UniProtKB/TrEMBL annotation:
Residues 18-91 form the Endonuclease GajA/Old nuclease/RecF-like AAA domain. Residues 265-342 form the ATPase AAA-type core domain. It comes from Bradyrhizobium japonicum. This is DNA helicase. PANTHER family: ATP/GTP PHOSPHATASE (PTHR43581), ATP_GTP PHOSPHATASE (PTHR43581:SF4). Transmembrane segments: none annotated.
Length: 608
């Protein structure tokens, strides 16, 4: 069998891997051209974007011909005449045995890893390493054809071969779907069969198992079938058929159909296929990882299916672990709908799948930020669900996130559709300078994006908001150089401001600490108690002070500890969430000014 690991010119050990996937007219995909990466490729995307279809397409290219059947529903727009299926998968770092001229060496193409380009001729001097493209086509006859593909040789009219059965088995990906029973036995295409040394080894083991079964059966068969054999012997002699005393019942292995499917893993007498769903999937995932020591490619649909969060983390940790020599394990293609999975993966391992509803074209965009200065890993750790919805509302900071969550609760309680139903998640952008960059990042991945910013300070990048607006980001900003905290204290009715003030003071170590901070901001008042302050809340100038104290950034004292005199009081999601639900929501219809109008625009945008 050909080795599946080879040493390339730059001295790094690399494994057989998929470098390009091209799909035309397969199910819901009109056209896809995707360059996956080594290691883990996790496909995410809301709705029926085509994630599982991509895994199916990869599997079919290397599938056994006898086991695949197509019907009209497999064609795009259910139209086989107009939309014939074509699926092409290109492999790089191919086994050296494949490069021999009597194998596939004359049909190889060239792949450039840095530029992600494919040519019809390998040219290692220019960085184009040998690659092999395998194509599956299906026309209106529903007959599938598999073969090596090279555009130049096709134009020259040369007949291109197909992968041999043994070579197909060598490169075929293993598939772990929702049900893992198949892989817990030695059936055809199971992962246990892959771990077995080779096909001849499997047949030898099966033959020996048949001999053992035959020998064990013969020990008990004489007593079990004695009466039947006696009657059969008498009947034969009556008709003149000569039979001896050696007539006996034996096991005919071929007749009973002993095959790999009939042999499975057991724990004591219990077949492992009777394990719980999660346990069986975890067991098979471990077997597939063992098989990947030989550089096989794995396909895992809905990796979280049947697994608790700690088991998901364990599976992903095993899949991400490098080989003993430190190199990356070959490739794993995942799909997921779980935030838990995203928390354990790097954004560079995520690919956002989008399907154009008009053209049917599908893209799989890498979630790795184009600008290294933008670290979006924090978003996938703190708010991973943002990557799984169609719409993201990027808020300047925690105060705005809490406000939106609180308003969402209020709207939901009053009969409006919650953000979850609308497919909207609010995320913290991390400040006025970073939030626009996060909004641009999500927009570049095809998300519908809104951006909520204060106006007390402008972003350092003076052009970024105009660029975002041109790119289709909906921007919402308060008026008159105000922050969210300013509007809460200025625009809410007095009874609501009193409640807000009490909530704010609860964050202080003691009430006098807040009074001291207030008097430093407005020394002419010299208030002595919170009760006295509450009597002055109709004064607009007095209301400005708590708003300023609520939004001040934390400052450290000379010992590096938070200075109680200069501590942000309202920079907390839970506190502002309470304010949004209990104070802002119920008073939206009675407040005047720009604040409730902007909130109304956000709600209108959410409902679109």
């Amino acid at each position: 069998m050909a080795p599946r690991v080879k040493v390339v010119s730059h001295g790094e050990t690399t494994d057989l891997r998929i470098v390009r996937v091209e799909i035309d007219n397969f199910r819901g995909i009109k056209r896809l051209d995707w360059q996956p990466r080594p290691g883990i490729n996790c496909l995410i995307g809301s709705g029926d974007s085509g994630k599982t279809t991509i895994l199916d397409a990869i599997e079919l290219v290397f599938a056994s011909r006898n086991g695949v059947m197509f019907d009209d529903a497999d064609f795009y727009d259910v139209d086989p005449k107009k939309n014939p299926i074509s699926i092409t998968v290109t492999l790089a770092d191919i086994p050296s045995e494949f490069l021999r001229n009597d194998r596939y060496g004359n049909y190889t193409r060239g792949w450039h890893g840095e530029t992600q380009t494919l040519e019809d001729e390998p040219d290692e001097a220019r960085g184009f390493q040998p690659a092999l493209s395998v194509r599956l086509t299906v026309d209106q006859t529903l007959e599938a054809e598999w073969g090596i593909f090279n555009r130049r040789l096709e134009k020259e009219g040369k007949r291109l071969p197909s992968l041999s059965y043994n070579d197909r088995q060598e490169v075929m990906p293993s598939r772990l779907g929702p049900y893992a029973d198949h892989h817990l036995g030695w059936g055809r295409l199971s992962v246990l069969n892959k771990i077995t040394e080779d096909a001849k080894g499997s047949r030898a083991l099966l033959a020996e198992a048949g001999r053992i079964a035959r020998a064990e059966f013969s020990k008990e068969s004489k007593a079990l079938f004695a009466e039947v054999i006696k009657q059969a012997k008498c009947a034969a002699q009556a008709l003149g058929v000569a039979v001896t005393d050696d007539l006996q019942a034996m096991l005919d292995i071929q007749a009973v159909g002993l095959s790999g499917r009939g042999i499975s893993l057991h724990e004591k007498n219990l077949p492992l296929r009777q394990l719980g769903l999660g346990s069986s999937r975890l067991f098979v995932a471990a077997l597939q990882d063992q098989a990947r020591v030989n550089a096989s490619i794995a396909l895992i649909d809905e990796v979280e299916h049947g697994l608790e969060p700690h088991r998901i983390a364990r599976v992903l940790r095993q899949l991400k672990a490098p080989k003993k020599d430190g190199s990356i394990k070959a490739q794993v293609f995942l799909t997921t709908h779980s935030p838990v999975v995203l928390c354990d993966l790097a954004v560079s391992q995520l690919h956002v799948v989008r399907r154009d509803k008009i053209t049917g074209d599908v893209t799989a965009l890498s979630a790795e930020p184009q600008f290294k200065s933008l670290d979006c890993q924090a978003v996938s750790r703190t708010t991973p669900e943002a990557f799984l919805v169609p719409t993201v509302l990027v808020c300047e900071g925690k105060t705005e996130v809490g406000l939106m969550r609180g308003l969402d609760h209020y709207w939901s309680d009053t009969g409006k559709s919650p953000f979850a139903t609308l497919g909207i998640v609010a995320v913290s952008g991390g400040g006025v300078d970073r939030a626009p960059m996060v909004a641009g990042y999500f927009r570049s991945l095809g998300y519908r994006v809104g951006l909520l910013l204060d106006t007390d300070r402008e972003p350092d990048d003076k052009t970024i908001l105009a660029e975002l607006k041109t790119a289709g980001v909906s921007i919402f900003r308060w008026k008159d150089k105000h922050a969210t905290e300013d509007h809460l204290f200025r625009d809410l009715p007095t009874p609501a401001v009193k409640k807000l003030l009490k909530s704010m003071i609860s964050f202080e170590a003691e009430e006098q600490s807040f009074i001291d901070r207030f008097n430093r901001r407005l020394p002419e008042r010299k208030i002595k108690s919170v009760g006295e302050l509450e009597q002055l809340l109709d004064d607009a100038k007095v209301r400005e002070v708590p708003g300023g104290l609520a939004k001040v950034r934390d400052k450290l004292d000379k010992d590096g500890k938070p200075d109680p005199r200069e501590r942000g009081v309202f920079k907390d999601i839970a506190a502002s969430e309470w304010g949004g639900e209990q104070l802002v929501g119920p008073n939206l219809n009675t407040m005047t000014g720009d604040f409730p109008q902007i909130i109304g625009k956000i709600r209108t945008w959410a409902d679109q």
